[in-house]
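Hi R.,

Here's the chain you asked about this morning:
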Amino acid sequence: MQFPDGKPKQFYQSLPKIELHRHLEGSLRLSTMLEVAHAYRLPLPLADPPRLKALVQIQKHEPLTSANFLSKFETLRLFFRTPEIIARITKEAFADAAADNLRYLELRFTPAALCNAKNFPLSEVMDWVIASAKEAETEYGIIARLIASVNRHESLEIAEKVVELAAERLDDGIVGLDLAGDETRFPAAPFASLFQEAKKAGLRLTVHAGEWGGPENIIEAIQVLGAERIGHGVRVLEDPNATALAREYGTTFEVCPTSNYQSGVVAALHHHPLPDMLAAGLNVTLNTDDPGISAIDLSDECRLACETLSLSLQDLRHTLLNAARAAFLPNGKRAQLENALASELPA
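And the predicted structure, written out as tokens:
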């Protein structure tokens, strides 16, 4: 990705950062995939690494559509074959975040997706991810928290089980519940009572909305599901009522500019609504979404925000502190995180 003259990427790498929206299933290293594919003789073009890369990462010549972006997951699902592999990719996701100078990462994962390759029990998959996250936290010095994700197109029975298991593991690093999936075809309303139960159990709530669907989905996520944060939400400005509601509730938006461009949500990067969302007084944060698929890290997103979207360094500082304030942590720990970040970021 090309940037005009400005600060080098090393400057953005040097900044302490926080991320709230990163999917485990979209964070695999290409080197790990090659190793696993050879070891398990996966039906992939192993003799042609560029072809394999094209199956799991966005390429310059490809159509920038949701269908093409989501097609990468069809290949990625082949890799979750053993407890050791699931633990490894979890630990590597946190290792990569720590190497990019992230101090805190909420990594969301979809237990049902990790189970599919070998029909693993949901509870065991969740425990493998938790154990690996704890190892990463100790080894890399990053604060590691997890969000359990359920999909709109899957049954309520699966979602109910994930919520039950996640609530039982609140003291083990799972802090929240996420609703993802195709918002244009599957409504969020059927999950409303389940999300209310999750909140009562102590889970914090975030919902994918206003990405491929319209701003009415953001209103639904806030008012019906009780979402504290919105995944993406870049269409919020299309409806003044949605914008006003988000300001009233103090809703935080987990914005992922590169992903929004590559998946066809925005037609051009320089037209991304992120600056306008900030100007409208919304709580905006920067995130990678699926760094393995997009071949980026959070420093790339910070650089894009400043060098392409013309955010000032003060704006960037504001988005990073917004992420600290919106972290799914107890009040005291959240304040400590914000204060530590504020003391290190350039004033």
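The chain is about 50% helix and 15% strand.

Let me know if you need anything else.
M.
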